[in-house]
Structures are given as structure tokens and as C-alpha cells.
Amino acid sequence: MRPAEYVLNALYWAGMAQMKLLVDLPGTLVRTPREPRDQALLRAAGIYDPAAPQAQKFWQVFSELRSAYFSGDLGDQRFWQQMIARVGLEDCDIAEAIAADTHQRSQLDAEVWGCIDSLLDAGISVGGTANCSLSQSQNLRRQYLQLEQLDALVLSGDIGVALPDERMLEVAVDAMGANARETMFISANEGHLAAAAGLGMRARVYLGVGQFCDLVENVSR
After folding, report:
1. Are residues 91 and 130 in the same domain?
2. Domain that holds residue 50
3. Which residues contact 172 (CB under 8 A, 6 or more apart)?
4. What pLDDT digit, counting tens, does each position of 39-96 carry?
């Protein structure tokens, strides 16, 4: 039996046909190899030694500014202007940095999508969330047209709030016509899972397609 069929059977036999499923897309359905992206960002910033103290400072500030970037408080240009100022980047190519950040070499996991597609065909509501800037949101939609088939697609750059802020999950649940307690949230991010659990959602860490059925069965117990 294929993973998607296995999940469908588990949902029905567990009496969960009305359960809503919300998937945090990065790290589950959408995968971005970190090493090529990180190398491209450092090159654009004019840092050629990933072990240099400036590289460590780069990633520290990068992480600190990410929430404001994902929520739209900082646009592409301002994000990198802040990076230059706070890290002390002298040779940063802003255009190259923006391109490396917004046109990441991500890929859609075909097995995961096959499972989600089967759930949609069976009438089970499936939504998706992702932290991404407005420009990243546009690229995501353009690159993966399948995402428009989801019952709800909530991207932080579109709504001005980013995970782990619970308000983003509330928007997603509302868009699916559900409530938190009848929604299972699957993510590879512990902070996002904690936010979902705080809302009363059935938060479960994503372990891969093979474990997806087990997650669903455990939630029903």
C-alpha cells in the first residue's frame, strides 16, 4: 500500500474524517538544501570564510532580523541594509543577496504532496503555512502551482505576522473553516509546534511520510 493510501485508511478507521490538517510547509512539503543557500548568501555578503568571526556575526544578525523580514516589517532592500549596518559588511552585493534569498533552490517533496492530494480528493481539509517574505511568497506560489489546491494557504508575508506568533495559526484555522481543537498541525519546527499546542491544536512533529500515519493514529487516542 502506498503511503498516501495508508494515511487515508488510518484517517477513516480512526474516525477522523472530519479532522482538519494544517501543514507547516518548510521542512515537510517544501525542502530547501541549506548548504547551497548559505554559501550563496555568504558570497553575496562578501564573506568567503564560513568559519570567520564575521560569518558567525552574519548568521546571528540574520536570525535576529528574520521575524521582521517574514512579517513584512522589513522589505528585501531594508533587510540587507540592516545586515550591512549591523554586521559591518563592506562588500555586500545587495541585488545578489536578495536573489539568493528570494530565489532559493527549493523542491516539492512528491511523496508528501501525493499524500496531501489524496486527502484533498477524499474531502479532508488541508491547509498550509509558511514563514516567508512577500517576494518569497510570490516565488513560492509561482514555482508550485499545486499549492493553490489547498483549502487555505497562509504565508506570513501576505498577512503581516509570522510564526511562532499564534495569530498566524488563528488566521490559518479560520481560513479552513475550522477551530483549533479539530485541527492537527504538523511541523518540523519546535517553536511553531509549541505555539500550536498553546492554541489547543493537535501539534505533532513531522518525521516523514512513513511516520505520518502513526502521527494521525496517535492523535486519535
Report:
1. no
2. 34-102
3. 22, 127, 129, 152, 154
4. 999 999 999 999 999 999 999 999 999 999 999 999 999 999 999 999 999 999 999 9
